[in-house]
């Protein structure tokens, strides 16, 4: 769909095309050792590892594997936790070192997958930068840098010129691990590895219910039933649609916008020499990156809560896209001739900032590693869960996240009015530099 402003709005990812080899939907009755519900990076990694370890695994996916957030995101492979370090330290002081290690290991693990399966996803190990637009933000980042260093993060604090940041940014935290990629291609690469494994994969198959049934678990789909010894819910933002899913996982819609191609000299002229991804420390972050297509991508800044009922495929709200573009022009006034070309987005799962995993009912496991950081964390978390189900002692990183259910966030916290209030606070702090 084209709007009058010439932006193409998509309810799909802007990074890759739909696969041409979609697996047949599931019909009938079967038994298996483990059924995985959801074929994003978390579910695919779980099923892939289980298949590699000789476990009889079935994966059921509503769309096709990678259809959800996994292929739609901004492509930041981050070795950090979501949330501001000062807040994390306040709530999770005793766990912060272990959580930091989980985040660091996640990025390294995911880089290992790219290498192992030789996935052509334009990955560049650039690291990422948290960059301040005001002295007040810079002060906060300096305090956060101390906490992160203490917790074991491999980071460096620098001014804008040292970090190769465009002139809008005063400086910030360079996070050495991770980098940038095309997540559509990465997800497609993991899907190919999964389809070539011994896992039985069914796409266009929506799971309606998951019910413990004596020593086993019954998974109902519209035209059949899977009788599994154990089930893994890897349903991300859709988790609330299964009544057995852990409460405390809420859906939030987030958007990205891609510009026309930019002349690299125009970037150099404003001092934008880093290839790292840039995020700001606003209440609701802004992100800016170069893409391998020679364009720029910017996103988030304004979020949308979910309506009640099932979440469908959804294109971004034009008001959000306009605001994102306004923000882009404010941060990069000399690039204001660059027109937004297309916009897409997707549903992410929010917990209270932390990735979480656990056993929500007898033999029913779940893993959620989102809060906008799942590109690195989902494949790692899925693999750790698989290793546990295959009989290993739980890995320390998995133990760190383990809870029967995530801490419950009051539902209003993830509503559009609350996000709009956060956005308004950000604009006030922008205006007064506080
Ligand atoms: C616009 C955007 C930008 C983002 N940017 C970044 C970023 O730069 N870096 C980063 O690390 N993270 C980012 N994220 C978050 C990241 O994409 C997610 O954390 C990650 O992909 C989650 O992986 P997942 O496998 O848990 O979920 P998903 O990829 O959402 O997969 C869940 C799957 O479960 C399926 N499913 C759900 N319910 C059912 C059911 N009942 N039956 C069958 N199938 C079902 C869905 O169809 C879906 O395919 C972003 C997300 C979005 C939307």
Verbal overview:
This is Oxidoreductase. Pfam families: DAO. InterPro entries: FAD-dep_OxRdtase (IPR006076), FAD/NAD-bd_sf (IPR036188), Rhodanese-like_dom (IPR001763). This protein has helices at about 40-50, 70, 85-90, 95-115, 135-150, 185-195, 265-270, 320-330, 375-390, 395-400, 415-430, and strands at about 10, 30-35, 55-60, 75, 130, 155-160, 170-175, 180, 200, 210-215, 215-220, 225-235, 250-260, 275-280, 285-290, 295-300, 305, 340-350, 355-360, 365-370. The longest helix has 21 residues, at about 95-115. It is of the alpha/beta class and about 425 residues long. The chain has a single domain, classed as 3-Layer(bba) Sandwich (FAD/NAD(P)-binding domain), CATH 3.50.50.60. It is built from 11 helices and 20 strands. Strands 1, 5, 6, 7, 13, 14, 15, 16, 17 and 18 form a 10-stranded mixed beta sheet that branches. Strands 2, 3, 9, 10, 11, 12, 19 and 20 form an 8-stranded mixed beta sheet that branches. A two-stranded antiparallel sheet has the order 4-8.
């Amino acid at each position: 769909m084209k709007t009058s402003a010439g932006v193409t709005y998509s309810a799909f990812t802007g990074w890759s095309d739909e696969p041409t080899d979609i697996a047949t939907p599931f019909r009938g009755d079967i038994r298996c050792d483990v059924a995985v519900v959801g074929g994003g990076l978390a579910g695919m990694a779980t099923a892939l590892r289980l298949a590699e370890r000789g476990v009889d695994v079935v994966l059921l996916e509503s769309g096709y594997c990678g259809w959800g957030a996994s292929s739609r995101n901004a492509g930041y492979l981050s070795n950090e936790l979501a949330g501001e370090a000062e807040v994390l330290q306040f709530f999770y002081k005793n766990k912060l070192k272990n959580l930091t290690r989980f985040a660091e290991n996640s990025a390294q693990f995911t880089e290992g997958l790219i290498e192992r399966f030789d996935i052509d996803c334009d990955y560049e190990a650039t690291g990422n930068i948290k960059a301040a637009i005001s002295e007040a933000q810079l002060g906060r980042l300096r305090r956060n840098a101390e906490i992160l260093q203490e917790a074991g993060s491999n980071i460096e604090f620098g001014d804008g010129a040292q970090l190769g940041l465009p002139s809008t940014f005063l400086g910030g935290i360079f996070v050495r691990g991770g980098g940038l990629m095309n997540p559509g291609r990465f997800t497609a690469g993991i899907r190919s590895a999964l389809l070539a494994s011994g896992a039985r994969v069914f796409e266009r198959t929506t799971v309606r219910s998951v019910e413990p049934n004596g020593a086993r678990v019954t998974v109902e789909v519209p035209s059949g039933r899977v009788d599994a010894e154990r089930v893994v819910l890897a349903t991300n933002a859709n988790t609330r649609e299964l009544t057995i899913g852990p409460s405390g996982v809420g859906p939030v819609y987030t958007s990205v916008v891609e510009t026309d191609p930019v002349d690299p000299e125009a970037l150099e002229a404003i001092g934008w020499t880093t290839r790292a991804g840039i995020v700001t420390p606003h209440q609701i972050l802004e992100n800016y990156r170069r893409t391998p297509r020679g364009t720029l991508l910017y996103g988030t800044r304004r979020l949308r809560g979910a309506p009640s009922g099932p979440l469908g495929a959804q294109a971004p709200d034009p008001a959000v896209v306009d605001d994102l573009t306004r923000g882009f022009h404010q941060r990069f006034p000399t690039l204001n001739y660059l027109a937004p070309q297309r916009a897409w987005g997707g549903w992410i799962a929010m917990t209270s900032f932390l990735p979480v995993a656990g056993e929500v009912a007898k033999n029913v496991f779940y893993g959620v590693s989102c809060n906008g950081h799942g590109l690195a964390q989902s494949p790692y978390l899925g693999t750790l869960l698989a290793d546990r189900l295959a009989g290993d002692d739980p890995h320390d990183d998995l133990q760190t996240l383990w809870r029967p259910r995530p801490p419950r966030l009051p539902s209003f916290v993830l509503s559009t009015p609350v996000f709009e209030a956060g956005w308004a606070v950000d604009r006030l702090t922008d205006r007064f530099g506080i």
